[in-house]
Amino acid sequence: MLLQRALTVRAWSGTNLLGGGDGAALADPGAAAAKNAGKERVLTDVLGHTPQGEVHIDDVPSLGDWKTAWDHIAFDGFLGTRMILQTIWQGCDSALAAPLVLDLARLTARAHEAGLSGPLNELAFYFKDPDGDGPAALADQYQALLGFAKRLGETR
After folding, report:
1. Which GO biological process entries does UniProt record here (predicted)?
2. Is residue 17 a contact partner of residue 58, using CB atoms and an 8 Å limit?
3. DSSP 3-state assignment of 92?
């Protein structure tokens, strides 16, 4: 939304509170650094520059399968007016992941039936930091996925 409205993002900072296996895995500084590097890469690809700010990840075992993400986004609005967008998101990780895994399994099986193998870049939509040279913008990834699904349907 910010990019489409030509609003310049100056800074993007966040805090993620993670329970369960994600929180424990990302308590390791190396794993957290890799995850943050992936987030920064996506922001840079989508925005065309790297905004100021960092993301912090905290392991909160009592959250169980739930996670909370808080983001603080500073941007320039009309006539350079400085503005802030803050979001707080809470969700159950397994309830979010289950339908994605089912979609991936069905699409991969159909691609295999169609004779495709190897990396399927059209499935980038399902990954936070996909491999390959595909688009970083989620809307572009979704369009690529729709085209892929249509082609898979036509080969039956």
Report:
1. inositol biosynthetic process; phospholipid biosynthetic process
2. yes
3. strand
CA 60/CA 68 separation, integer angstroms: 10
How confident is the model over 6-54, as pLDDT tens digits?
899 999 999 999 998 888 888 888 988 888 888 888 889 889 999 999 9
What is the CB neighbour count within 10 angstroms for residue 12? 22
What radius of gyration do the chain's Cα atoms show? 18
Q: Are 77 and 13 in contact (CB under 8 A)?
A: no
The answer to whether 100 and 142 are in contact (CB under 8 A) is no
For residue 98, the tally of other CB atoms under 10 A from its CB is 11
**C-alpha closest to that of 15 among 62, 71, 64:** 71
What domains does the chain contain, in order, with CATH numbers? 8-154 (3.30.360.10)
Determine the Cα–Cα distance for residues 154 and 113; give it in Å rounded to an integer: 12
C-alpha torsion sign, points 14, 15, 18, 24: positive
**pTM of the model as a whole:** 0.73
